[in-house]
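Researcher: Go.
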Amino acid sequence: MYKPLHDYVLIRQDEAETRTEGGLWLPECHWLGDVQIKAERPYQGIVLAAGPGRAVTADLRRPMAVAAGDRVLFHRLHGTPFRHKETKEDLLLVLESGLLAKVIEADEGIKVQALGDQILIRVDDAPDTTEGGLVVTDAAKKAVWTGEVIAAGQGAPIYHKRSMSFVRENHAPLVGKRVRWEEGIGYYLQLGDQHCVLVDAKELLCELAA
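Model: Structure:
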């Protein structure tokens, strides 16, 4: 088996992106009611091996957030596809920065654990009426870019030279807050009946008043 170097991760992508028994769905096109969202689609696969982490000094490497056996969502553009010579499997080498989340099977169903600086948001429904009280038809509804944060990554580790250690930006206070993000940004998925999006923290524009 290939052994990844630095902060690369070896992934076997799932052959079919279908709705799982736990309710996770990665559709080709994402719809909120009758509103189609034009956005990137995440891919799902199993980590076969992970590199030791990128070296920042002669004795210190940046810690990896995943290990062999983890199921992950990832951005395919960060990957280098190739075919295993012996098994003929189609595999990818993906930079850890291209990983979006872990997919964890729990008793209550599928749980998506955001990685690094990724923020998992439950997308608001498109409004049925205008602020003036007019009814909005399905054909006239527009995509919304607001929602409630339901999970946040631990923050990508950043090396601090003075302390010779890693620090992370704490995204946990965002959980439970309603936010707006940059239009057209994010990786859409469906968890049960919830429409969700994974967005990098730097793409969040503001918190919304309660």
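Model: The chain has one domain: 8-201.
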